[in-house]
Design a protein that fits this description.
8 strands, 2,3-Dihydroxybiphenyl 1,2-Dioxygenase, domain 1, four-stranded mixed beta sheet, 120 residues, 3 helices
Length: 120
């Protein structure tokens, strides 16, 4: 068995496609009726589909999981993030952990938690 994809819920598929392409260079692999598979295995699913399937309310900013990306030049990434998405909501701005890794945490446009860190 192997993990194939990670799925996140979004309100506006087109807006989220742009977001993940602009910041992380992810491209569409496959798309159908409210489900978009991006490179690296990230799946965007329309919130309406997920709500209908689960019969439960979606809770943005639940902080129960995060998408983790690594970036060697994290300062350049943060500059791009601030330029393209100046209103992004941060959990923590660029910081350095005691073990030397630099990280930034923020929410995507739908409240999904993202961390970008330097490789360890």
């Amino acid at each position: 068995m192997r993990l194939r994809n990670i799925l996140v819920i979004v309100k506006d598929i087109e807006r989220s496609i742009r977001f993940y392409h602009d910041l992380f260079g992810l491209d569409i692999v496959l798309g159908n009726d409210g489900n978009i598979i991006l490179t690296e295995g990230l799946v965007l699913q329309d919130e309406k589909i997920w709500k209908d399937f689960l019969g439960k309310t979606i809770i943005p900013e639940s902080n129960s999981c995060e998408l983790y990306f690594e970036e060697q030049n994290i300062e350049r990434f943060v500059e791009k993030l601030e330029r393209l998405y100046p209103d992004i909501q941060y959990v923590n701005r660029l910081m350095t952990h005691s073990w030397g890794q630099k990280v930034v945490r923020f929410y995507d446009l739908d409240g999904n938690l993202i961390e970008v860190g330097t490789p360890m």
